[in-house]
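Predict structure. Chain length: 160.
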Amino acid sequence: MKTILFRFEKENINYLECNINSGELTIGDKEKIILEPTENKWEKYNVVMGELLKIQLKYKADLLAFQSPGKYMWAIKDEEGFANSAILHLFCYHNKLELLELTPTTIREELKIPSKEFKLLLEAKKWEIISKYKIAKSDKLFDWLVFLSLLKDRLIFNEN
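Prediction complete.
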């Protein structure tokens, strides 16, 4: 299953290509797109949609995954994060792509484990990812890669 992990920032789109085959997670290209300044929101919408289309044509992903940045996620205070995730939702809807939001709460609920056990599992998985993929803990996509890794077996199971 080809997956693209996204992290949106104000004027950037960070993304990482991943593949999940037979329960194994492999990572591929990691890129950052710097969005050109636009004069209005409509132009920005078109730029983001155009970049998403280029990424999809290049990688032909089965699943897109994201988490909006910021501590006010889904609040009016986080207008930029809300707009970017809305654009991603719309893109996936129009292109019939599966979209997965990766947050600690949704992952813990999917795994059906208590908070304390989840924190221990998360910490162990972080060290596994750091050593296996040589990715820095400070990497902008690190947490999302950890979450995807925790779900990889379930994603393969749901695919079959």
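Summary: The mean pLDDT is 83.
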